[in-house]
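Format notes (please read before filing issues)

Several people have asked whether sequences and structure tokens are stored in separate files. They are not. Every record keeps both together, in the order shown below: the sequence lines, then the token lines. Line labels are part of the format and must not be stripped during preprocessing.
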Amino acid sequence: MSEQNFLRKVVTVLRRWIWRLLEKLPSIREAGQRETENEKELLWENPFLPYSRRVIEEILRLKQLEYRSFRPILIDTDTPNQHFGEEDDVDQVLSQLEQGLNFLEICTDRPEYFADWKSRMEDEYGLIVRMIPKTEEEPLYGNMILDFERKGPVRTAKIPREMIYLPFQKRRWEVLPAEEVSAEDAKEYSAGEKACETAESKEKPGQDYLDINVPIGYNMLAVRVEKNL
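Then the structure lines:
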């Protein structure tokens, strides 16, 4: 083979390789973007955890349910050490929900972690907490799923339509700008606040409120909570 023919073959192979690489670039770029977005989602910390009870109470109100009818199914976190020895997401929320709670199921692979809390709830409130391994497919009897996992898909495939699904870390909770609050919602909020006014509250300065766009399954629900804790 002459040197000229050899060079032609090398150039042809290089051209083919370059074209194939150019064809793959969009998919490589998209994969990189998806990976970056996934990393951002995993790094996201829900800043509204201190408002969890207020958010849940508002969701129940919008669904025409009372707190005594609240039957949560808690899916335990899959990253229990994310706070490096401090209270994790589940601890923060359970401490808010325990007063007045009449029902609780916990799906977890670390039942020993909840042993002391479970005993205290039985002694102080008479609440029998049902512990369920995540790997077992047992029937669940609650009406709202509180999902604290960070990884994996949003668990809506096998959830009955009437059950409320609230993911705490898999989907972002966002502050809803005032201009995005619908006129109907604003009217309802105003009526509710006025109805709750008392002689004592009228003497106090106006309460500051926070409008949060909360994911319910794959949908979003705007809820208003008191901003001052």
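For reference, the curators noted about this record: The helical segments are 3-43, 52-62, 89-97, 115-125, 183-195, 199-203. Residues 184 and 190 are 10 Å apart (CA to CA).
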